[in-house]
Amino acid sequence: MSFIVYPIATLPRAFTPRNCTPRLAVVQRSHASPYGGSEQVIDLLNDRWMLSLDLPPCNQDEAGAREAYIGSLRGMANTTPLYHFGCPVPRGTLRGAPTAQAALQGASSITLNCITGETLKAGDMLGVAGLLLQVAADCVGVAGSIVVPLVNRLRTGIAAGAAVTWDRPTAPFRLSSQSAVQYVPGYAEAVSFDFVEDVA
Questions:
Q1: 175 and 155: one domain?
Q2: What pLDDT score was predicted for residue 5?
Q3: Residue 6 domain flag
Q4: What secondary structure, in 3-state letters, does the chain show?
Q5: Residues whose CB falls within 8 Å of the CB of residue 9, separated by 6 or more in sequence, listed in order
Q6: Is residue 14 part of a domain?
Q7: Number of domains in the chain
Q8: Radius of gyration over every alpha carbon of the chain, rounded to an integer in angstroms
Q9: 78 and 55 in one domain?
Q10: Most distant CA pair in the chain: distance in Å?
Q11: Which tens digit of pLDDT belongs to each residue from 36-67?
Q12: Residue 139: which domain range?
């Protein structure tokens, strides 16, 4: 059996969005009773991130790099590594080289090995085992570990000792919009993008 290997499109050097809108898409099913109307919601544990952003107007040199980047994505065929541009590093004090303790698929929290007293704040982003995770509530390290509640539950399990990325943690995304560069005399207009996280 052979597998298709999709290239990774590298971000242009001047890729600095003027705004960034992340959204967690939760996969769920709801069922309503035909009698009393009560509802049951089933969480299918396959959350993925959606990301919308705009690049500001630019000169024509930068516009050419943007146009080449869009073309290199080949629609949704190729992926590109993206992070939460509004929160590139934690607002908390967690730094260094933390590692994760083992966690099972579907878990709503993870435990990290860290320095006692280090903190994470609600909304901070972490990368672990290819997953882009968001911290659900403020937490602090005690006795060399920190229990981190998560907004998005784990799509896959995490092995003990897995490295934790706190500086611009990325995940692979696919372009879901028909983005294009509009040239006008002397410069190029702003460009809007919509991306969806690639789930292996």
A1: no
A2: 60
A3: no
A4: CCCCCCCECCCCCCCCCCEEEEEEECCEEEEECCCCCCEEEEECCCCEEEEEEEECCECHHHHHHHHHHHHHHCCCCCEEEECCCCCCCCCCCCCCCCEECCECCCCCEEEEECCCCCEECCCCEEEECCEEEEECCCEECECCEEEEEECCCCCCCECCCEEEECCCCCEEEEECCCCCCCEECCEECCEEEEEEECCC
A5: 69, 72, 73, 78, 79, 80
A6: no
A7: 2
A8: 20
A9: yes
A10: 65
A11: 878 888 887 889 999 999 999 999 989 999 99
A12: 99-165
Q: Assign residue 153 the CATH number of its domain.
A: 2.40.30.290
Contact 104, 89 (CB under 8 A): no
Does the predicted model carry a pTM greater than 0.85? Answer: yes
In angstroms, the CA 95 to CA 118 distance is 8
Task: Give a yes or no: residue 159 inside a domain.
Answer: yes
